[in-house]
Write a structure and sequence with these properties.
alpha/beta, two-stranded antiparallel ribbon, 382 residues, single chain, 7-stranded mixed β-sheet
Length: 382
């Protein structure tokens, strides 16, 4: 015959309080003891960021040989990657904070992640549209492509917005040549346009337009001379197909707001920063390089709205010193310790079973409260 035990038909407040304290204590422990988890492609991200840092240094050394000197007020990291407020080769307005935020070698890690998520692997062809507006992001993109082992087909526009590569005599094509001469990157633009309005430098001074053409000539790059906007889009697409030499283009990377690449201001606003796989709503009638690639099923990496990208991937805004390689959530994130969380959950469940579902807990409590020989009024039998 089974032995019968007596316990209350309601759970005591003391037991409920103990359960609550245990749960709160467990939650506090789980929140306090987070672990550091390396993010996917950690080694490739570090390698790309280191390469970007070395490229920044090479360009800084070259910039110090030129005039005007680096301005620490606009270029607090003394990177040499920041241009001028205005010059003859300045195409339009630009955001100084955004340009300062872009000078971070760890953006290369962000681009590595985007390339990988776009399905780019070693040997794949990647079309790249660059301008002089964000030279630091151009460098980071080249570093990411080299680290991944992709084969870029690059088409550039030389003009730059404020604070970009707008120092006369030191355009983006000049920077690209310096990096090639220093054996940092083997890449050279397949062709280049003047950039600016309609990709033809409209609205710029005669002096500025001549400087842009001179930059193309001295760097021995084919000159794109479109008759109008649509002709520029057609020519760029032809160049990308020609450069791919029969190999499918696996992704397209656009840096900045190049007119024919994004589709004027409308395209820049509609396409989200980062990886785009589908045409955004409202862009069905938009003709641009980005729109054409997306319509062909080619993922597009859109590098604009730099501050938004920095916040998304845990990079600082407007750093005052050059960030160290490996800093940011793009490399390592704090995550919950699953073993600790699991242990806390098991403990709470065991406690609940012991003191609510089972009479064993009641017997333990009663044994601790009074000696076994003591009398007392029996409780309702359960």
């Amino acid at each position: 015959m089974k032995k019968l035990y007596w316990r209350p038909n309601k759970v005591s407040r003391s037991v409920l309080a103990l359960v609550a304290i245990l749960a709160l204590g467990g939650m506090t422990a789980v929140e306090a003891f987070l672990t550091q988890a390396k993010q996917p492609w950690y080694a490739e991200k570090l390698a790309a960021a280191r390469l970007t840092r070395d490229a920044f240094e090479a360009l800084r050394i070259e910039r110090t040989r030129r005039q005007p000197a680096i301005d620490p007020e606009t270029d607090p990291t003394r990177s040499g990657m920041m241009g001028l407020l205005m010059s003859a080769v300045t195409s339009n307005s630009g955001s100084l904070p955004a340009k300062q935020t872009s000078v971070n070698p760890n953006f290369a890690a962000v681009i590595v992640q985007m390339l990988k998520r776009a399905g780019v692997n070693e040997g794949d062809v990647v079309a790249v549209g660059v301008s002089g507006s964000f030279p630091a992001l151009n460098v980071a993109t080249y570093a990411a492509l080299k680290t991944v082992g992709a084969k870029p087909v690059i088409v550039s526009s030389v003009a730059a917005s404020q604070w970009g590569a707008n120092v006369p005599g030191f355009s983006w094509l000049d920077m690209e040549r310096v990096l090639r001469q220093r054996n940092l990157f083997p890449y050279k633009s397949l062709a280049a346009s003047m950039g600016g309005i309609e990709d033809r430098g409209l609205g710029m001074s005669k002096e500025g337009r001549k400087e842009l053409v001179d930059a193309i000539v001295r760097n021995d790059v084919a000159h794109i001379k479109p008759a109008n906007y649509n002709a520029s889009v057609e020519e760029r697409m032809r160049l990308f197909v020609e450069g791919a030499a029969g190999t499918p283009v696996k992704a397209y990377v656009n840096i900045g707001g190049g007119t024919t690449s994004v589709g004027t201001k409308v395209g820049k606003r509609l396409f989200k920063p980062g990886l785009n796989r589908t045409l955004p709503e409202g862009a069905s009638g938009l003709d641009s390089v980005m729109a054409r690639f997306v319509e062909d099923g080619v993922p597009v990496i859109h590098l604009v709205n730099v501050d938004q990208l920095a916040l998304r991937y845990g990079l600082p805004l407007q750093p005052k010193t050059m960030p160290n390689v490996g800093e940011g959530k793009i490399f390592v994130r704090e995550v919950y310790n699953l073993w600790l969380a699991g242990g806390v959950l098991v403990t709470i469940l065991a406690f609940l079973y012991l003191f609510i579902r089972s009479d064993l807990g009641y017997r333990i409590v009663q044994s601790a409260r009074r000696p076994a020989s003591s009398g007392g009024r029996p409780e309702q039998m359960v």
